[in-house]
Amino acid sequence: MDDRTFRDAMGKFATGVTVITTVLEDEVHGMTANAFMSVSLNPKLISVSIDEKAHMLKKLEQAGKFAVSILSEDQVEMSMHFAGQKEKHDIEFGWISGVPVIKNALANIICDVYDAHKAGDHTLYIGKVIDLCVCQGNPLTFYGGKYGRNLLDQSQAV
């Protein structure tokens, strides 16, 4: 199978949208990702998948801490900014346990890097959850290469 067919098939899995953030030498770094999942309840572990070509790969390794902010339906521009698709100049980060987070996200999950595993052209970072914050709202979704608010009606995709 070719890469496009594989990507199209993977796009059939509806996901939420996250922004992964860290700080290194007083500079905040972030990237949009939808390859995120919980791994374990005891200990509390999550996983994010980072492309080997992404600048964030070395940043996470060096910083040793990161946050995953699960975006709300009103945060499309934030997702696009950290995906390099749209410039947003007025980002004011929240801070939890010394790690930058996206304000007004549905959840901010702060982690220490627990482990990392190279898998193909990505590295799976396992994070041990050290703190979190949860808010109410509706999730920003991603399906078939499009942002959406309601997966049952893709004509409303943003």
Using only C-alpha atoms, the radius of gyration works out to 15 Å
Strand content is: over 45%
Q: State the fourth-level CATH superfamily.
A: Electron Transport, Fmn-binding Protein, Chain A
CATH topology: Pnp Oxidase, Chain A
What would you say the CATH architecture is? Roll
User: Which assembly state applies to the chains in this document?
Assistant: single chain
Ends apart, CA distance between termini: 30 Å
* CATH C-level: Mainly Beta
Could you estimate the helical fraction of the residues in percent?
10-25%
Please report the number of helical segments: 3
Quick take:
The protein has helices at 3-10, 56-63, 76-82; strands at 15-16, 18-24, 27-33, 36-40, 45-51, 65-70, 93-96, 99-102, 107-119, 122-134, 141-143, 146-148.
Explained architecture:
It is built from three helices and twelve strands, in the order H-E-E-E-E-E-H-E-H-E-E-E-E-E-E. By secondary structure, the chain is mainly β. It has one domain: Roll (Pnp Oxidase, Chain A), CATH 2.30.110. The chain has a seven-stranded antiparallel β-sheet. A hairpin with a 4-residue loop joins strand 4 and strand 5. It is globular, with a radius of gyration of 15 Å. The two termini are 30 Å apart. One of its GO terms (molecular function) is oxidoreductase activity. InterPro entries: Flavin_Rdtase-like_dom, NADH-dep_flavin_reductase, Split_barrel_FMN-bd.
